[in-house]
Each structure stands twice: as structure tokens, then as C-alpha cells.
């Protein structure tokens, strides 16, 4: 799981980014103090930084220039300043990418994935979970087997992620619902059933229809058959 540090002084935007990153299976670190942002970043040693430009005290460009004295951590500027000169200043100030507010969540996540890939951070084994010959891709939110792939919704992805994290173990319906709620996805028992039906259909479409076993009165587990 990749650690992403959010340097953003607006509490609402900071919380929004924290939820977005958690749902995308990143580990967000969101400090609320801005006395020494560069020092905080160096101490946390994140895999990537989302950095606002307009900060109290030092601005984000000054922070990035300080970082570049000792660190090559990838930096994406996320800012309401959206002119071509602002973008140029951010990039020449050491930023790896730039996105203006209000941003679209899928675009921001795509930019994060692209910068991580360029920086060499996301090794294949760290961005995927594999059981038998079925692979869950944590960055693209997809499931694949033998070259066949299916895209997953956020709910479907989270359900499969919970099962892949407990290979061979039975995960109860109650535990699945609690896991989803912990990740800001609010579903009930009926919605879980609907999502499981859709997941099974997508797994069947890639030749993995027997991957999930139902244990009556208990829950679900990844199938043990080879």
C-alpha cells in the first residue's frame, strides 16, 4: 500500500482527499499543522505528495524547492491557481505534475497512478493481489485471469479486496459490510447480495466462475479448488 501525504490547509478538501485515497487503497497522511511541511514530508517518507500551493506561511512551491534539496519524492500540485504561468511555476519549482481545483476524482487518481509508475514506485507485486491464477489489480480496479479482464465498480472491488486479503478464510457477511462501512461505502445486506451476484457474473466472464464459495450461514471464501 502506497503512502500519500496530503499537504492541504482547507479541512473540507483535506478530508475529501483522505476518503478518496482510502477508497483507492492508498494510505493517506494528512497533517493539520503547516509549520514545517518539508520537514514533515521528509520524516514521513511518503511515496507521493499532494501539495497545495496556497499554504499558510511558506507556499507549496517554496516547500517543493526545499524538498528537492534532499528528496526526489514525487509531488503533484493540487491548487486553485490554474493559469499556464501557475502550472509552469509549479513544474519548474520541482513538481512532477499539476492539477487544478475543482478536480475530478478519476482524473486525479489517474494522475497519481501515472506519476507513481513513472517514478518506479509501484512494483507489480505491490499493486496486485493474486489467488490461484486470478489477479486483483489495486490501481486499475480490475480482475483478470489468463489475459481476460473485467472492470469492477467501487463496491465490487472493495468486496473482492476483502476476500483477497483473507485467502482461504471465510469472511462473514457482517464482516464484509463492516469493512465496507469502514471505507466509507455504506451498504446493507440486500445490496451486498446484489453486488455478489454481479461479481460472480464478472468472474464467470473471465473464466473464474468458481473463485468465490458460499458457506451457508457463515459467509464467503475464495475457493480452494485448483
UniProtKB/TrEMBL annotation:
The modification 4-aspartylphosphate is found at residue 52. SMART domains: REC (SM00448), Trans_reg_C (SM00862). InterPro entries: CheY-like_superfamily (IPR011006), OmpR/PhoB-type_DNA-bd (IPR001867), Sig_transdc_resp-reg_receiver (IPR001789), WalR-like (IPR039420), WH-like_DNA-bd_sf (IPR036388). GO terms for cellular component: cytosol; protein-DNA complex. Keywords: DNA-binding, Phosphoprotein, Transcription, Transcription regulation. Residues 126-224 bind DNA. Pfam families: Response_reg, Trans_reg_C. One of its GO terms (biological process) is regulation of DNA-templated transcription. Residues 126-224 form the OmpR/PhoB-type domain. GO terms for molecular function: phosphorelay response regulator activity; transcription cis-regulatory region binding. Residues 3-116 form the Response regulatory domain. The keyword Phosphoprotein applies. May play the central regulatory role in sporulation. It may be an element of the effector pathway responsible for the activation of sporulation genes in response to nutritional stress. Spo0A may act in concert with spo0H (a sigma factor) to control the expression of some genes that are critical to the sporulation process. This is Stage 0 sporulation protein A homolog. It comes from Zhenpiania hominis. The lineage of its organism: Bacteria, Bacillati, Bacillota, Clostridia, Peptostreptococcales.
Amino acid at each position: 500500500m502506497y503512502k500519500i501525504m496530503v499537504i492541504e490547509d482547507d479541512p473540507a478538501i483535506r478530508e475529501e482527499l483522505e476518503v478518496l485515497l482510502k477508497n483507492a487503497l492508498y494510505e493517506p497522511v494528512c497533517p493539520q499543522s503547516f509549520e514545517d511541511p518539508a520537514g514533515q514530508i521528509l520524516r514521513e517518507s511518503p511515496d507521493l505528495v499532494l501539495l497545495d500551493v496556497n499554504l499558510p506561511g511558506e507556499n507549496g512551491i517554496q516547500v517543493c524547492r526545499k524538498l528537492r534539496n534532499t528528496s526526489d519524492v514525487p509531488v503533484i500540485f493540487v491548487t486553485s491557481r490554474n493559469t499556464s504561468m501557475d502550472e509552469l511555476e509549479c513544474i519548474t519549482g520541482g513538481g512532477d505534475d499539476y492539477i487544478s481545483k475543482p478536480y475530478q476524482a478519476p482524473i486525479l487518481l489517474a494522475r497519481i497512478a501515472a506519476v507513481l509508475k513513472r517514478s518506479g514506485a509501484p512494483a507489480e507485486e505491490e499493486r496486485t493481489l493474486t489467488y490461484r491464477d486470478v489477479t486483483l489489480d489495486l490501481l486499475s480496479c480490475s480482475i483478470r485471469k489468463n489475459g481476460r479482464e473485467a472492470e469492477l465498480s467501487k463496491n465490487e472491488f472493495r468486496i473482492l479486496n476483502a476476500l483477497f486479503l483473507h485467502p482461504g478464510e471465510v469472511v462473514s457477511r457482517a464482516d464484509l459490510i463492516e469493512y465496507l462501512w469502514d471505507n466509507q461505502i455504506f451498504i446493507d445486506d440486500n445490496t451486498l447480495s446484489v453486488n455478489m451476484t454481479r461479481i460472480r457474473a464478472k468472474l464467470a466472464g473471465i473464466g473464474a466462475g468458481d473463485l468465490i464459495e458460499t458457506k451457508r450461514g457463515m459467509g464467503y471464501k475464495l475457493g480452494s479448488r485448483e
